[in-house]
Every structure is written in C-alpha cells, then in structure tokens.
Amino acid sequence: MTSATPARAALIALDWGTSSLRAYRLDGGGRTLDARHLPWGIMRLPQPLQDGAATPALSGFELAFEQACGDWLRAEPALPVIACGMVGSAQGWQEAAYLDVPVALDRICTLLTVVERPGATPVHIVPGLIQRHGLPNVMRGEETQVFGVLRDARAVPDAGLLIGLPGTHSKWVGARNGQVTHFDTFMTGEVYAALRGHTILGRTMSDAAAPDMAAFERGLKVAGAPEGRAGVLSTIFSTRALGLTGELAPASQADYLSGLLIGHEIAALAAMLRAQGHAPRIVLCGEPALCERYTLAMTHYGLGAPEQAQNATERGLWHLALAAGLVPSSSISA
Questions:
Q1: Are 43 and 91 in contact (CB under 8 A)?
Q2: Is the link from the previous residue into 306 a cis peptide, with omega within 30 of 0?
Q3: In what order do the strands lie in the sheet with 307-308?
C-alpha cells in the first residue's frame, strides 16, 4: 500500500531513536499501510530556516515530525500519534518517565507522556524502563518491542521468556507472567563500530563485496576457546595480528571482529543462564542479517536456535495504543 492509494488509517506510530526516525501508518487491524525511514534521529534534526520572520521558527522536532507524517495528518486530522525511543529522553522532544523493573507490562500504557502541540495533534511518548538493583540499567524503545512480542498471541510466555534485541546496544530481556523481570545490556554493536572506525584495528581492514561468514564463525569460536579466556580486550587484537601474519585477508577482518564480539556476548549470556539454573524460551527480534549471526552464535554456545519475532516495534506501538485507548474500538478491523 502506498500513499498514492490511501486506505483509512487508525494510528500513526513513530520509532524515534538517536540516529533515525521511522514512521508507520497503521490500519484498524494494526497492519502497516505506509512506512517511512528518515535520517532525523534526536541528535541530528533538520535545522529551522532563519528568514527573519516575526513568528518563531519551528523546532527541529516539529520539522522532522512534519516530514515524517504531516501529510498523513492533513489527510486524516483525527489520527492519534504514539512514539517510542530516544524521543522521550532528556535530549528528546519531551522527557518521559522511566518505570522501575520489575514492572507489569500493562503499566506502560498508563504512563504515556503527552507532547502538547497547540492547535495540532498531540504526540504520546512511551516511557522507558530502569533497573536499579545491582548496576543500574536503562532502555528506551526496546520496551515497546518487548510489548509487541509478548502481546503477539503466538509468543505468549509460559514459565519464562528471554527476548533478545541485538543492535547497537543489545538487550536481553527476561519476562515472566506478563512482567519484565530483568534485563542486561551489551554494547556490542557500538564497540564494533568504534573499534573498526577509530582504532588501529580498522587500518588493515577493507570493505568486502559480501559477508565472509567463515571469518565470522572463526571469531565466534575463538571467543569460547582456551585462548579466549583472557577476555575480549585480549582477543580483539588478534584481528590485527592475524592480518599481519597473512592468516586473515583485509576483507575478512571486519567479519572476524564481529564474530569475536558477538561470541563473547553470547558466551557470557550462556554462562549467566547456566548460573541461574534454567533454560528459558528465547525469542530474537531485529535486523534479519544480524539475527542470523546471533542465531549462529547461540547455536554454537549451546542455547539452540531461537524463535524469531517480526515487526516487533510496529506491533508494540499498535498494542500500546490499543491498551491506552488511543485507538477507538470502532476503528478496529479483523
């Protein structure tokens, strides 16, 4: 479905992070009618035009919002808008509260923060989650994906569920009986990007025409091998050393590094689960190519192949809007 052949919508849903903004136009069944991906994350917003006009210029958030869904709202002005992610951070459009973990998922929809836009459609921002026991931990945006996974009838948790959200900051979220019980964060994606782009490891790398999965699996296995016991700070230097000795081609080094980092993450996760003495159902959701790498890692480290969840963010935003009463029951279609 495209905007050239519009169907009646029930909700506009925004996934607004640090580096990008995704907008979805959803119908009365929560199906995506139209989607847009813009580069306007909260740290890189469009700049207001300074033309000397007497009226104040629109903020960067308003300009990005207009590009994302302004025409949709002009066509259907009564559509509610819900948003999740870093748009609710202290650097966002308006700060949304954190809810303390453990938390019942049903509480999330009761504490939406409203961005009032005089004379225009308000925006409802989903709260984040904070874990205060032990080392503190936070999330914004991932709680919506978790909500989507758990509200999907095909993924109702039984005794326990572990939801993996690989990405820049990978999250592993424990859920039981409709509650988020705990979560762990691994900065795997950001560390990979930093090592590749800002350290000597990147100096011997070259871009590859296609992923080298053999190099990835080599790194994956090193993380759990005897030589990996010295830890990630030791093993990552092998990326350079293998290149200097001619054992790893420049075009293979990035995939090897990816395997090392993901391998250390999953090896640590497997150790934590063994220490807890239980093996929960595991659901993975994220970008397909990245999920494929995590599935290989989880299989290698004895966790088995996880279940896969699709469109968790859109589903989560839809279910949150329903639970919050933003979508009137009369608009819901089969």
A1: yes
A2: no
A3: 103-104, 179-186, 170-176, 161-165, 281-284, 307-308
121 three-class SS: coil
User: C-alpha dihedral over 15, 21, 22, 26, to 10 degrees?
Assistant: 70
Residues 6+ apart with CB under 8 A from 299: 305
Asked if pLDDT for residue 48 goes beyond 80, the answer is: no
Nearest CA-CA partner of 23 in 97, 107, 87: 87
Q: What is the pTM of this model?
A: 0.89
Name the one residue in this structure whose structure tokens are 């009032």: 116
Q: Which phi and psi (to 5°) does residue 314 adopt?
A: -60, -45
DSSP string, 70-86: HHHHHHSTT--EEEESG
Q: In the prediction, which pLDDT does 333 show?
A: 58
Provide the pLDDT confidence category of residue 180 given band limits of 50, 70 and 90: very high
> Tokens 């081609």 identify what position?
249
Radius of gyration of the chain (CA): 22
DSSP 220-273: HHHHHSGGGGG-HHHHTTHHHHHHHTTSS-GGGHHHHHHHHHHHHHHHHHHHHH
Q: Are 127 and 96 in contact (CB under 8 A)?
A: yes
Q: What is the DSSP letter of 202?
A: G
52: pLDDT strictly greater than 90: no
Among residues 279, 285, 216, which one has the least CA distance to residue 251? 216
Which candidate, 189, 172, 170, places its Cα nearest to that of 181?
A: 172
Residue pLDDT, tens place only, 279-288: 889 999 999 9
pLDDT tens for residues 69-111?
999 999 999 999 999 999 999 999 999 999 999 999 889 999 9
